From TrEMBL:
TM region(s), chain numbering: 12-32
Domain ATP synthase YMF19-like N-terminal: 2-73
Principal cellular location given in the protein's record: mitochondrion
Keyword annotations of the record: ATP synthesis, Membrane, Mitochondrion, Transmembrane, Transmembrane helix
InterPro entries: YMF19-like_N (IPR003319)
GO cellular component: mitochondrial membrane
Subcellular location: Mitochondrion membrane
Record's keyword annotation contains Phosphoprotein: no
Protein name: ATP synthase F0 subunit 8
Gene Ontology biological-process annotations: ATP biosynthetic process
């Protein structure tokens, strides 16, 4: 077989080793540092983004706690105001006639559906709570 001839195989092995060592040197000295540098910068960017996200979530949790505290305080003051004024106190809900108010609201909703923009109406969330459960 001519491929395994002793005269031809030694130069082929020599050039194979030379080319692979040059390829290895070129990869390790030129391309690998660039790849490692890009990986390190990506890792640093991810760390920075994680820190910013944690700070933002911490701020939002703090602001939600403050908002809840303020709402509870203001609701307690409203309860005190309503309990002090007898005119604002609604103790007997059975004597209230809310049917006319419900009818007016239904007419307004119907007119807004018929005569308004549908995109605006889609953005409005309407939750109906009926008083007339039997």
């Amino acid at each position: 077989m001519p491929q395994l001839d002793r005269i031809i195989i030694f130069p082929q092995v020599f050039w194979l080793l030379v080319i692979f060592t040059m390829f290895y040197i070129m990869l390790t000295h030129f391309f690998l540092p660039r790849f490692l540098k890009s990986l390190k910068t990506r890792k640093e960017i991810v760390k920075i983004n994680e820190l910013e996200a944690s700070l933002i979530s911490k701020r939002s949790a703090d602001s939600q706690a403050k908002l809840k505290f303020l709402l509870l305080n203001h609701l307690s003051t409203l309860k005190k105001i309503f309990s002090m004024n007898l005119a604002l106190n609604i103790s007997n809900t059975k004597s209230l006639n809310t049917q006319s108010v419900d009818e007016l609201i239904c007419v307004m909703v119907k007119n807004s559906i018929l005569f308004c923009n549908s995109q605006i109406l889609d953005s409005i969330c309407i939750k109906v709570k009926s008083v007339y459960f039997k």
